[in-house]
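Weekly structure sync, notes
Attendees: PL (lead), two postdocs, one rotation student
Agenda item 3: pending single-chain targets
PL asked that the sequence for the first pending target be pasted directly into the notes so everyone works from the same version. It is reproduced below exactly as submitted, 332 residues in total.
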Amino acid sequence: MLDVLEVTLPIFGLVFCGFFGQRLRLVPEAGVDALNRFVFHFALPAMLFRAIAVQPAAAYANVSFLGAWVLASLCSYFLARTLAQRALHRGPMSATVMAMNVTHPNVGYIGLPLALELGREHVPIMVMAVIGDMFVVVVMSIVLLEFDSRKADRRILEEVRKAGLASGTSLDGSIALTVLQGLARSPIVVAALLGLVWSVMALPIPTLLDNFSRLLGGAAAPVALFAIGASIGRTSLRLDATSAGMVGWKLLVHPLIAALVLLSMPGIAPEVWAMGVVAACLPSASNTFIIGNRYGVSTGGVAQSIVAGSLLAIVTVSLAVWATGLHQAPGA
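Predicted structure, written out during the meeting:
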């Protein structure tokens, strides 16, 4: 177990540096936002592009893993969404945000640095998890939220029209276009697609671009982890039954579903299965909080679950790495 902690403790140690830096007021509020913007718009896209581009296209040809990862995500997502609506009596938009929160792991900010620490041979699997998560879970959530939001707006508009207060207002617009515009504005999505094109076409990275992306991408892991901790540090922790349930689902139920689905899928090597399970064990990503706020959904419980999950993940992720044997060198 000690060799596992030698890998995971430095990762989460950076998170705690940011946490205590914020709690001790060593990092100003504006500084936390600046760090997050730097990581999201500059450092993480550079690291993601380089991590994808330098790998041969064959590294991303593990269709079995990608299919199993997506299937596990869908199982967790729709089971959680159904329970939120029927057991917790949440509306469709609130249920969508809760389902995204318990299914969308932080494979970008925490997953990629962890994969690098465990061994560069694991990076393509984590990259596929990032891609599958972004283009399935996130996109599907936005589509559902957009659909339910427009449906609610149409009801309001009909009432307004009946009252004679509006006549020419229209809510027509393509949901697909809205989603595509959102993806096109995401530097992480753009970087991932560029990296895939580079890899598939087997293009050499020019020395200037290689040095630039290496220097900028090298800042992604430490700054991202520090920024996560600082973001957590400025949020007080007040868990209720719902937010505690979301933490338990994300750190225990989602990994269990992923483990079973990946295990049942043929053609998945043990180390690939192990990496998928560890990826599913990661705490919830903050994208859920951001997207939920954008659509006017109450996200207080989501924020609390992200904070608690990120703090508890040092235990669950370390146990997952130990139990799956990922800390062992190949052939050991």
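Discussion points:
- The radius of gyration is 20 Å.
- The chain has one domain: 2-324.
Action: rotation student to compare against the earlier draft before next sync.
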